[in-house]
Each structure stands twice: as structure tokens, then as C-alpha cells.
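FAQ

Q: What does a record look like?
A: Structure on top, sequence underneath. For example:
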């Protein structure tokens, strides 16, 4: 008799959906947080003004990260808040900061050396670890994830779930 320690089938359930700019300041990314992975998608489209401006908006898969050592408890964004400009379409979610194009039409914008995007994704894992994460394109235009981990207090009793709730001070 043995104990199963690996996930056989990944859950399709999305724990949270977070708008973020973790690749570049000009990218409208959305991060889908699953139980043991994250998926980055980019909002594209919205160029047709004469008709319904939201009719051609789509989400394109950019990348996924599935190599976390344990389950994700919580996720938040650190960094500069999105500053929406006045939209031509009141009441719409589009922030009007730029006109996106499909990922196939544009060359990836590279971050300069030692530059980080305006926002960083923070994940709290069940292994009592915080993961600080962003994505960037290397010189070969391949998307790479850069992450750093920070252990949480080890002296807390196991029954207390440390890291279930994350809060970010907006100052």
C-alpha cells in the first residue's frame, strides 16, 4: 500500500483572475490563478470603433507556469496601480492606454537590463513560502519567468494556515 503524492489530473478550476502588467508596462495581461499553476493571457483587439468596440476583444494564451512546489493559497499584485485614462466608451473596462494588436503582429517588447515590469505577482504557497514573480522576454524573444521565494515563519503551528490571506498596502 502506498500514498499518492503527485497530482494525476490538474483541476480546471480558476481560483482568481487578476489584471496585471507582469511582462511589460504596455501589455494588458490577465493572470489566471489555478490550484497549482498560473496562466498568463493577453487582452487583444478592440480596434473597431464604429460598431461594438468589445466585439473583437479576445484573450490569447501567452504562457503558463506549473512548477511550483505546492498549492497556491493566495495571489496579489504588487507595484504601480493601473491608471486608467478617460475612455471613449464610458462604462467599459478598457483603460485606453494603448491600442493592442494581436501577439502575432507585434515583436515582443524587451525589458532593458535590470528593469522590472511595473507590477509583480505575489503568490502564497501551502509550503509556507511567498513567491515573487514576473515574466520577461530574453534576447531570443522567448518568454522567461523570474521568481524569488521568501520563507514564511516556521514557528507557527501547523493548524494555522499562514498565507491564506494576502493584503497589499496601496501607498
Amino acid at each position: 500500500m502506498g500514498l499518492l503524492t503527485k497530482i494525476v489530473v490538474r483541476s480546471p478550476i480558476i481560483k482568481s483572475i487578476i489584471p496585471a502588467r507582469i511582462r511589460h508596462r504596455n501589455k494588458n495581461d490577465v493572470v489566471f490563478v489555478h490550484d497549482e499553476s498560473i496562466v498568463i493571457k493577453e487582452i487583444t483587439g478592440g480596434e473597431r470603433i464604429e460598431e461594438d468596440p468589445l466585439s473583437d476583444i479576445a484573450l490569447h494564451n501567452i504562457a503558463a507556469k506549473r512548477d511550483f512546489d505546492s498549492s497556491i493559497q493566495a495571489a496579489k499584485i504588487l507595484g504601480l496601480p493601473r491608471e486608467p485614462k478617460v475612455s471613449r466608451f464610458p462604462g467599459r473596462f478598457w483603460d485606453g492606454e494603448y491600442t493592442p494588436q494581436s501577439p502575432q503582429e507585434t515583436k515582443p517588447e524587451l525589458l532593458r537590463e535590470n528593469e522590472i515590469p511595473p507590477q509583480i505577482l505575489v503568490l502564497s504557497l501551502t509550503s509556507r513560502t511567498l513567491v515573487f514573480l514576473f515574466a520577461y522576454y530574453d534576447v531570443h524573444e522567448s518568454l522567461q519567468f523570474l521568481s524569488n521565494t521568501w520563507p514564511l515563519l516556521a514557528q507557527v503551528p501547523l493548524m494555522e494556515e499562514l498565507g491564506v490571506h494576502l493584503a497589499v498596502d496601496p501607498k
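Q: Is there anything notable about this one?
A: Residues 85-105 have pLDDT under 50 and may be disordered.
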